[in-house]
Amino acid sequence: MRTLDDLDIKGQRVLVRVDFNVPLDGKTITDDTRIRAALPTIKEIQKRGASQVVLLAHLGRPKGREEAFSLHPVAGRLAEVLGGQVPVAETPEDVGDARVTMIENVRFFDGETKDDVELAKRYAATADVYVDDAFGAAHRAHSSNHAVAKLLPSAAGLLLEREVKTITALLQEPDRPVGAIVGGSKVSDKIGVLRRFIELSDVVLIGGAMCFPFFKAQGHDVGDSLCEEDGVPLAKELLEIGGDKLRLPVDLIAGREFSAETETKVIDGVDVESGWMGLDIGPKTAALYADEVRKCKTAFWNGPMGAFEMEPFAGGTRAVAEALVDVPASVVGGGDSVAAVTQFGMQQRYAHVSTGGGASLELVEGKTLPGVEVLST
């Protein structure tokens, strides 16, 4: 993969694809982790003498130009942490000569998600070289991270380079024991990575609503719990190939409703009666999982153990997060896992916190990431 060292940056206009898909409450950014993660690359490009930095980013999934998905709040926050002004160009043709500028949400433009070459040419016309630092979008082939990379001298930024090297090393040369903690809601979304983890890891711990297809495959009652029916046969397959490596909860915390104010109870076992839904792993499971995690020298975590955003159901996820701190090579694999450790104020305590949930999973699974492949020598 080509890196910044492979580009002649001095005196050049540098087009940089970043991942600024940040959470918003109205126009207020509630977590600027992804903005801060891009700073080292932006500053390094400036240090190497770039005449201008032009940023490309997406926000959400707008249908056309929707003000709610404008990058103006993002540009404002970037200006605060970077220093100076960061104007937003409504189209690539509107890019001025500011030292750092940002083109409006790339998903406002027709053809972006279709990897349209004509749109990529409009992006390319704003710069002399291209840098991709958006690992969170690397599993997509879009105009702003794929087609445009073929039109200019291109390379990976510091963040993208570090993400790929760290996760690749985890797969190729891990210190053992290796553990995988996988949560979330759907087995079907993570079937490939679960198969891969069963192959690579010494232990695979399952949590979140994902556990209910496993329980149903074993003949347990799941009550009103979120249970992906299409995931039941997949879970059965994984139970057969996983053997002793695959661990499931032994108790649960259940609620009457999906609410922080709902009535709750601890279920000693995994059968959930009608009128109740499992919303977190139970205290016994949390302790068992924490012990397993602490035995590991390498661990990859993707997906919460329960509805962590509601305090009554955050205990399992918090227990895993705290145990993972003690693992030398600890990787938090993006998405809700990052949201959880950020909520707990623990995001600085791991060896690596990935900015890309889907991209990190596909990399683990062994899939080719279009945004990485196009930068390969």
Q: Give the tally of structural domains.
A: 2
Rounded to the nearest angstrom, the radius of gyration is 22 Å
Looking at CATH, the homologous superfamily of the largest domain is Phosphoglycerate kinase, N-terminal domain
| Secondary-structure arrangement, i.e. CATH architecture of the largest domain | 3-Layer(aba) Sandwich
Strand content: 15-25%
The CATH topology of the largest domain:
Rossmann fold
Main sheet record: 6 strands, parallel
State the separation between the terminal residues, measured CA to CA: 6 Å
Count of DSSP H/I helices: 13
Query: If you average the pLDDT, what whole number results?
Result: 95
Low-confidence stretches: none
Could you estimate the helical fraction of the residues in percent? 25-40%
Helix and strand content put the structural class at alpha/beta
Shape: elongated
- Look at the structure and give the CATH class of the largest domain: Alpha Beta
Largest beta sheet: strand ordering: 5-6-4-1-7-8
Write down the secondary-structure element order.
Answer: EEEHEHEEHEHEHEHEHHEEEEHEHEHEHH
Number of strands: 17
Which helices and strands, and how do they pair?
Elements: E1 13-17, E2 24-25, E3 28-29, H1 33-47, E4 52-56, H2 72-82, E5 88-89, E6 100-103, H3 117-124, E7 129-132, H4 143-147, E8 154-156, H5 158-172, E9 178-182, H6 191-200, E10 203-206, H7 211-217, H8 231-242, E11 246-247, E12 252-255, E13 264-267, E14 277-281, H9 283-295, E15 298-302, H10 315-324, E16 329-332, H11 335-343, E17 352-353, H12 357-365, H13 370-373
Parallel strand pairs: 1-4, 1-7, 4-6, 5-6, 7-8, 9-10, 9-15, 10-11, 15-16, 16-17
Antiparallel strand pairs: 2-3, 12-13, 12-14
